[in-house]
Design brief:
Rossmann fold; alpha/beta; Elongation Factor Tu (Ef-tu), domain 3; five-stranded parallel beta sheet; single chain
Length: about 290
């Protein structure tokens, strides 16, 4: 779906409780984690879903609101049945006009990053398919993400080990970034995944770009190639689930990487179709 296709008629307010930078100050990327309190009876969401943010205008082309989606970066948390807290992972974005060459601030990301404690914003949703947890705790789970695509995986891993507990299948996370400074929830500022390094079934693989000044989000393909034997074994199991999250460029990159792992484009297309048909391949793709 494109953003204009989403139904935003159901709206509710949220109050900002916390706003923390989760990338190091010397990092060129500013990524912040926002904690929002929602006083909306019966508000519920599942891991992997996104929330809509409506930024009041007026905006270009006569729009009263500017609409953007952000993946919820934690499991549900509430103090009562009518009060819910959610966390959003937001990267401050800037765009270059292809005609003038001028730089412009992203409307939604800068609006959210600049919010002050106590301010209220308008939300809508939640949207999207959740990352369903396999019924059998011995099932394997493969997660691959780039950039802020780590947000739903942070919630998913926390859900598996803290909420459910006793997970017996392999849980593998592959995460790509420009440099170690851009690693979210795996850096010196916030390292949430360190809570699970002692779990026998959990392993995380960081993919750092060999050319950090290029428009690459980490050499995920190489990282997957190094672990290709285990990955191929996992994918061939009948109960393995694969979850993808990141910018739209990740889709083509992974298709190329898996074609090399499998040995041919035709063989990979058959395997991917099999996974998709069984709802065991789920993509959460962010548009530009």
């Amino acid at each position: 779906m494109h953003l204009q296709d989403y139904d935003t008629k159901t709206r509710f307010q949220a109050t900002l409780l916390e706003n923390h930078r989760i990338t190091a100050e010397q990092s060129k990327d500013e990524v912040r984690e926002l904690t929002l309190e929602i006083q909306q009876p019966n508000f519920q969401f599942d891991v992997g879903q996104s929330i809509g943010v409506l930024i009041p205008g007026p905006h270009e082309f006569g729009h009263d609101y500017h609409f953007r989606l952000y993946t919820i970066a934690d499991i549900p948390s509430s103090d009562s049945a009518s009060v819910q807290q959610i966390k959003l992972c937001v990267k401050r974005c800037f765009y270059i006009d292809e005609y003038s060459g001028e730089q412009y601030a992203g409307i939604a990301s800068n609006y959210l990053c600049d919010l002050k404690l106590g301010q209220q914003i308008i939300l809508t949703g939640p949207y999207g398919l959740p990352f369903e947890v396999p019924e059998n705790k011995s099932a394997d789970i493969l997660m691959i993400g780039m950039g802020t695509g780590i947000a739903p995986f942070r919630a998913f891993v926390k859900h598996i080990y803290k909420t459910l507990g006793g997970w017996q299948g392999k849980v593998r996370l592959f995460y790509g970034a420009h440099t170690g400074l851009e690693m979210l929830y795996m850096n010196d500022v916030r390292n949430d995944f360190s809570n699970y390094y002692d779990e026998e079934t959990f392993k995380a693989f960081q993919a750092i770009s060999p050319r950090p000044h290029w428009a690459e989000s980490g050499d995920l393909a190489q990282s997957l190639q190094i672990q290709r034997e285990e990955i191929w074994h996992m994918i061939n199991k009948s109960d393995t689930h694969v979850y993808i999250a990141g910018h739209e460029e990740i889709r083509n990159m992974l298709d190329q990487a898996f074609c090399q792992i499998v040995g041919s484009k035709e063989k990979w297309n058959r395997k991917k179709a099999e996974l998709e048909a069984g709802k065991r391949w789920v993509e959460l793709i962010y548009e530009s």
